[in-house]
C-alpha cells in the first residue's frame, strides 16, 4: 500500500503530437502539481506517455517523474 490517503493534482501544461508515421499514435507531455494528504506545498511533476490505437487507444509507454527542488 502507498503511504498516503489522498492526492489532488493540477495539470499546468499539456502538449500532444502524432508520434508514429504509419500508426495512429500520440505522444503526450504533461507538467503539473500534486498535493498529497494534508501537505500545503505542492510537488511538481512531469509525465510523458504514448497512446497507440488498436481497437481503442492504450498506453504503450509511460514515464512519470517527481521534480524535487
Automatic annotation (TrEMBL):
UniProt entry tagged with the keyword Cytoplasm: yes
Domain NTF2: 1-66
BP terms from Gene Ontology: mRNA transport; nucleocytoplasmic transport; protein transport
The keyword Chloroplast is assigned to this record: no
InterPro entries in the record: NTF2 (IPR045875), NTF2-like_dom_sf (IPR032710), NTF2_dom (IPR002075), Nuclear_transport_factor_2_euk (IPR018222)
Keywords, comma-separated and alphabetical: Cytoplasm, Nucleus, Protein transport, Transport
Protein name: Nuclear transport factor 2
Biological source species: Coemansia thaxteri
